[in-house]
Write a structure and sequence with these properties.
One of its GO terms (molecular function) is 3-oxoacyl-[acyl-carrier-protein] reductase (NADPH) activity. The protein has 9 helices and 7 strands; from the N terminus they run E-H-E-H-E-H-E-H-E-H-H-E-H-H-H-E. The chain has 250 residues and is α/β, with parallel strands linked by helices. Helix 3 runs parallel beside helix 4 and helix 4 runs parallel beside helix 6. The structure holds NADP nicotinamide-adenine-dinucleotide phosphate (NAP).
Length: 250
């Protein structure tokens, strides 16, 4: 099976670093033109774009805070003015503000919900306008195994990520008749800046819980996203697929 995304326009939120960067480069390698969204780190976004163009792909970086309605509006308006449509949306931007619930400030809760869940709502709604017009589209939401099984110290993050799973199912049902599929990808522990701060003890405990015996790579996640974005995945919608080395089996 060969995956081609030639002629497709893809928006990857949080495409400047980590998993988002791997998703952006992989979609571009499959032929898509990729809009690399970022919030603050323009240099990292430019590095993603440079990696794509060095491999003869097409990409552009665009700044927008996905939790801010007017910035999301501006982002999609610019994409549509420039490229005419959006075929693929990957809602990847995410943050953590870990602490036990009894110590969690409202700010910690709100910030995580705003970026990780509200951002998915805002970007999905904006992308659905061109997708419903075209009567086709692919939306892929990056959730987490934490949204499935919970994690001490991450009640805000777990709530947002579980919210994404419910949102994915509801929108998949709403959009199926328009030939738009909506799926979620739930990574386990992946080697990125988000997990770089794990202490040795925690890392050892995590490795013991992973049947495949290693943390995942951003590329492990990007491979599945690329498949879900392709025609090969046309009959898959409303699903949450884990990429976690077998950590969660259901
Ligand atoms: N790493 C893991 O083990 C793991 C596991 C499960 C799920 N995930 C999920 O996978 C996704 C990517 O994680 P990662 O580990 O690659 O994270 P990361 O390395 O920390 O990168 C986060 C990305 O999100 C962007 N971002 C953050 N807030 C944003 C906002 N308000 N608007 C737009 N962009 C924003 C950042 O942009 P700037 O560069 O501009 O800051 C950056 O590109 C997240 O949704 C995360 O929850 C990660």
């Amino acid at each position: 099976m060969q995956i081609s995304l030639k002629g497709k326009i893809a928006v990857v939120t949080g495409g400047s670093r980590g998993i988002g960067r791997a998703i952006a480069t992989t979609l571009a390698a499959a032929g898509a033109t990729v809009v690399v969204n970022y919030q603050r780190n323009a240099a990292a976004a430019e590095e993603t774009v440079a990696a794509i163009t060095a491999a003869d792909g097409a990409a552009i970086s665009m700044q927008a805070d996905v939790s801010a309605a007017e910035e999301v509006e501006r982002l999609f308006k610019t994409v549509i003015e420039r490229y005419g449509t959006v075929d693929i949306l990957v809602n990847n931007a995410g943050i953590t503000r870990d602490t036990l619930l009894l110590r969690m400030k409202e700010d910690d809760f709100d910030a995580v919900i705003d970026t990780n869940l509200r951002g998915v709502y805002l970007c999905t709604k904006a992308a659905l306008r061109p997708m419903t017009k075209a009567r086709s589209g692919r939306i892929i939401n990056i959730t987490s195994v934490v949204g499935l099984i919970g994690n001490a110290g991450q009640s805000n993050y777990a709530a947002a990520k579980a919210g994404i799973i419910g949102f994915t199912r509801a929108v998949a049902r709403e959009m199926a008749s328009r030939n738009i599929t909506v799926n979620a990808v739930a990574p386990g522990y992946i080697e990125t800046e988000l997990t770089a701060g794990l202490g040795d003890q925690v890392r050892t405990a995590i490795l013991e819980a992973i049947p495949l015996g290693r943390l995942g790579t951003p590329q492990d996640v990007a491979n599945l996203v690329c498949f879900l974005a392709s025609d090969a995945a046309a009959y898959i919608t409303g699903q949450t697929l884990t990429v976690d080395g077998g950590m969660v089996m259901s």
